[in-house]
Write a structure and sequence with these properties.
By secondary structure, the protein is of the alpha/beta class. It is built from 19 helices and 15 strands. The structure holds uridine-5'-diphosphate-xylopyranose.
């Protein structure tokens, strides 16, 4: 099929490549010309497992092309995917202005029947809103159908998840568009769930809010574990053996970040409010997370009372391993709070995007772990990068002013920790002052 994907961000780029891999002719439209040029040359614009290989494979086979020209892309496609950003607003509403802008542009070039698929995460009711917008723009109803097709990929595993997801959700309101989606997704061999557009839109928020709640739940259990001398990993493992609970998303730590969970939980609360439903559980999950990411600062304040002038090392700036994305990363909140208390920060992350430097221009960015540890009073591990779990702990004793470790992602081996002269704090695996 001829497909056009509007937006070459995380979701747009992976969607484009996923369909190109399955033999469709894909045009991906992106307004940032620098991105377009890079992608057409086979240079990935995000750090993502297997992305470079797939991009080059699709370019060589001539199944993908990146452009700024939305006119040609829309005219020559049977199916148009909208994959633009839907950022959070201050009142937790979702800003869908980029969706509106794209739909207005599509309206100019809609020459014959096409299926318009919304892949962006959008509030319940957006499918109807887009339909109304197209009609107001003078497009006749027989020229389009609108599908709601939320995306569930994880950063870091985006290519894998798109090609091997657990399910594909399709909200539709015409048989014709349903059949087109069925045909398009057939080669993926993934369970398709067809439903109303409103349900499809809600499934995305409900899934993310549920997973975020699971994380906040295990984090509260972890905090209790530290008080009563239980090990959260054993608790989570045994809970996860119950198939109804599952072991996934039970890793305790300094909370969830990223472009989805923080934004989507808040959006669901707002969508609920607008419909007279108070999402008490989701609100609590958000609150627990906001407190959880500051646990390291609480530990330090209890220990030192005064942080002014103390050198602190932050290991890991991205919101999780496997990505260069720093959006809503717990480390950002920790750094901000430590700076407010007058601490001096040295940070290390080999992958974090340069954007971090504009957020915190006055901290020291080190090129390796060792430099970041020299003369530090404490090291806080904020991301579960393998490089940190493999760290030779003897360097902490040798290089740091005081070898205090706050393992915000429980990545260090307790067996190793106990061999060294460290003061070690974990999230629910106990504290060890050797
Ligand atoms: C998430 C959803 O998983 C995905 O389906 C959706 O499409 C987008 O949002 P992503 O944000 O890429 O994906 O990352 P994910 O792997 O889900 O992790 C989110 C955050 O939760 C990270 O900060 C991670 O460190 C944290 N997390 C995850 C935990 O603290 N514990 C866990 O057990 C799992």
């Amino acid at each position: 099929m001829n497909i056009c994907v509007i937006g070459a961000g995380y979701v747009g780029l992976i969607t484009s490549l996923g369909f190109a891999k399955h033999g469709n002719k894909v045009i991906c439209v992106e307004k940032d010309i620098e991105k377009v040029e890079k992608l057409n040359k086979g240079i990935p614009t995000i750090f993502e497992e297997n992305l470079e290989e797939l991009l080059n494979e699709c370019l060589i086979s001539n199944h993908i092309f990146f452009t700024k020209d939305i006119h040609h892309a829309v005219k020559s496609s049977d199916v148009i995917f909208i994959a633009v950003g839907t950022p959070e607003m201050d009142n937790w509403d979702v800003n869908i202005s980029q969706v509106t802008e794209v739909v207005n542009q599509i309206s100019y070039y809609l020459n014959e029947y096409k299926v318009i698929v919304n892949k962006s995460t959008v509030p319940v009711g957006t499918q109807k809103y887009v339909e109304k917008l197209l009609l107001e723009n003078g497009i006749s109803r027989d020229k389009f159908d609108i599908i709601s097709n939320p995306e569930f990929l994880r950063e870091g595993k985006a290519v894998h998840d798109f090609l091997n997801g657990d399910r594909i959700v399709v909200g539709y309101d015409s048989e014709k568009s349903k059949e087109i989606m069925e045909k398009l997704y057939e080669p993926f061999n993934i369970k398709l769930v067809f439903t109303q557009p409103e349900a499809a839109e809600l499934i995305k928020y409900a899934s993310n809010a549920f997973l975020a709640t699971k994380i906040s739940f295990i984090n509260e259990i972890a905090n209790l574990c530290n008080k009563v001398g239980a090990d959260v990993e054993t608790v989570a493992y045994a809970m996860g053996l119950d198939k109804r609970i599952s072991p996934e998303f039970m890793k305790a730590g300094i909370g969830f970040g990223g472009s989805c969970f923080p934004k989507d939980t808040k959006a669901l609360v707002r969508i609920g409010e607008k419909n007279g439903c108070d999402f008490k559980i989701v609100r609590s999950a958000i609150e627990v997370n906001e407190e959880q990411r500051l646990v390291p600062v609480r530990i330090l304040l209890e220990k030192f009372k005064e942080l002014k002038g103390k050198a602190m090392t932050i290991l890991g700036l991205t919101f999780k391993s496997g990505t260069n994305d720093i959006r809503e990363s717990p480390s950002l909140f920790i750094i901000k709070e430590l700076l407010r208390h007058g601490a001096i920060i040295k940070a290390y992350d080999s992958k974090a995007s340069n954007e971090i430097k504009s957020i915190f221009p006055d901290i020291t960015y080190c090129n390796n772990i060792i430099d970041s540890l020299v003369d530090s009073h404490c090291v806080i591990i904020c991301t579960d990068w393998e490089e940190f779990s493999a760290l030779d702990l003897s360097v902490l004793e040798e290089k740091m002013k005081s070898p205090i470790v706050i393992d915000g992602r429980n990545v260090l081996s307790l067996e190793e920790v106990k061999k060294y002269n460290l003061e070690y704090y974990s999230i629910g695996r106990g504290n060890y002052i050797n």
